[in-house]
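I am writing to request your help with a piece of structural work I have in hand. What I wish to show you is a protein chain and, alongside it, a tokenised description of its three-dimensional fold. Could you please explain, in whatever detail you think fit, how the structure tokens follow from the sequence? You will find the record immediately after this paragraph.
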Amino acid sequence: MNELPFMLPVGLFTSDGQVHRSGVMRLATALDEIEPLGDPRVQRNGAYYPLLLLARVITRLGPFAPVTPDILAVLPAADFAYLQTLYSQMNTAQTPTWTAPAQAPQPTYPDDLVETECPHCGALLELDLGSASVPA
């Protein structure tokens, strides 16, 4: 899921009397989250950060593509809150729920017996090392 279409609860009202509610948001990159920090508006007022961040990841809002901070600034507060929540849900890392498989118990053999698998055919072989002779 790299992009997610959305529908704003209230919508963007344009000067021609239309209401635009549909849009598309993409997953954020590290640069999307870092770059707005250097913007002078964010340095003066941290409240600008979400506005600039959302403008980077919303690829379309109604007929507008790209979406600028000025477009987002005139959204109703309910829509802006909705977009912040959507961003958070899309970009929050999910902890994997799977766990490592349990270790199979290792078989025990008498001291001189070893079980191995043939690397060519996969047959299980039992080797008796007690009867092996060591060359002198």
Observations:
- The chain has a mean pLDDT of 83.
- Residues 77-91 form the longest helix (15 residues).
- The helical segments are 30-34, 40-44, 48-57, 69-73, 77-91.
